[in-house]
């Protein structure tokens, strides 16, 4: 792992060219070493890689947070293969945005950019103003500095993003001025104690990023499984209690069925008989209704016949025709006696015919009414 990666990126002016463009937060020396925020580190990695590829003279589109990570990684690896850079690891290891593979790719691309700019590393000029004992003390201070930096890495996220953005430029200028000067050992220790708390960095994640949401889903899943371990025993006991209660209810139901089996059968028989009687009653009710209607019709016809019979009887008892006949016969006494006798016989014959016809009609009406 190349620990000079951030020095190479600063030599290529990442703080002035790329960081303001994509609104990237300041990165410490070990930003790509350990996993802190996978989604943010992955976006920073692909952005820096794309920026370095463009600096080598190859066209490469600047990635977005919404792009497919697999497609972006595949495009970066294709460019590396075209430049004959060895890539003997899986692309899955690059999705975390940190680790040896990420540092390797960025370091190789940075070396190519520096090589294209004819940049050469020179050996450091050592100032021999301190004796060996002082050098040992400086080494000890450097070891302590590394320990403090490790603690700073573990405690990242304490200070807010606003205070960090406002103070970063001032801190960078102070650090550059501090590096250009030479201090004695005590002044170095005091300066280290002063700036160590300020090295704490907070990197806030964007809640709209799908990687952040994926990380939240994973955390929720882990919490769910942890809570399930505590509730599984309670759920198991509850299930056992419900099962026992259901078994008791089933056994009691079977006992009741055996005890009341005879009554249930008797009830079934009585119910079937009741249904049969109800059906017979309905059929009988229908027959009675029909007969009642027929009786009403016959009664009406009988009344009509009675009225006709009474009217005919009254007409038969009427003597007005006979009286009129007698009067007519009295008027004709002066006439021929033979003619009077014939008229009398004719009148009797007419009455007899009328009476016979009336009797026939009465008999016919009586038969038709029946």
UniProtKB/TrEMBL annotation:
Superkingdom: Eukaryota
The protein's name: Intraflagellar transport protein 57 homolog
Residues forming coiled coils: 264-308
InterPro entries: Intra-flagellar_transport_57
Family listed: Belongs to the IFT57 family.
Pfam family of the protein (one): IFT57
Comp. bias (Polar residues): 312-322
Region (Disordered) location: 309-346
Cellular component per GO, a single term: Golgi apparatus
Subcellular location(s) of the protein: Cell projection, Cilium
Single GO BP term: non-motile cilium assembly
Keywords, comma-separated and alphabetical: Cell projection, Cilium, Coiled coil, Flagellum
């Amino acid at each position: 792992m190349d620990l000079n990666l951030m020095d190479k990126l600063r030599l290529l002016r990442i703080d002035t060219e790329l960081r303001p463009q994509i609104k990237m937060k300041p990165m410490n020396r070990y930003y790509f070493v350990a996993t802190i925020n996978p989604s943010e580190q992955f976006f920073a990695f692909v952005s820096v890689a794309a920026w370095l590829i463009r600096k080598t003279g190859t066209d490469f589109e600047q990635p977005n947070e919404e792009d497919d990570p697999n497609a972006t990684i595949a495009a970066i690896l294709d460019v590396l293969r075209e430049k004959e850079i060895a890539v003997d690891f899986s692309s899955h290891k690059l999705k975390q945005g940190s680790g040896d593979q990420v540092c390797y790719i960025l370091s190789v691309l940075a070396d190519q950019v520096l090589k294209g700019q004819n940049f050469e590393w020179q050996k450091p000029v050592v100032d021999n103003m301190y004796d060996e004992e002082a050098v040992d003390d400086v080494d000890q201070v450097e070891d302590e500095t590394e320990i403090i930096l490790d603690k700073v890495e573990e405690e990242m996220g304490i200070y807010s993003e606003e205070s960090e953005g406002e103070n970063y430029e001032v801190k960078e200028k102070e650090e550059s001025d501090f590096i250009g000067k030479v201090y004695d050992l005590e002044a170095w220790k005091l300066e280290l104690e002063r700036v160590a708390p300020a090295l704490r960095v907070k990197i806030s994640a964007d809640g709209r990023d799908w990687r952040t949401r994926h990380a939240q889903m994973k955390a929720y899943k882990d919490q769910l499984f942890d809570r399930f371990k505590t509730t599984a025993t309670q759920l198991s006991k509850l299930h056992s209690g419900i099962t026992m209660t259901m078994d008791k209810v089933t056994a009691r139901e079977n006992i009741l069925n055996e005890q009341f089996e005879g009554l249930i059968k008797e009830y079934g028989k009585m119910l079937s008989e009741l249904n049969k009687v109800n059906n017979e009653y309905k059929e009988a009710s229908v027959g009675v209704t029909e007969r009642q209607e027929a009786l009403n019709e016959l009664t009406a016809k009988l009344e009509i016949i009675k009225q006709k019979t009474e009217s005919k009887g009254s007409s038969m008892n009427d003597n007005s025709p006979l009286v009129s006949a007698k009067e007519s016969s009295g008027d004709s006494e002066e006439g021929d006696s033979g003619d009077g006798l014939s008229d009398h016989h004719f009148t009797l014959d007419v009455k007899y015919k009328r009476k016979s016809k009336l009797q026939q009609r009465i008999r016919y009406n009586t038969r038709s009414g029946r």
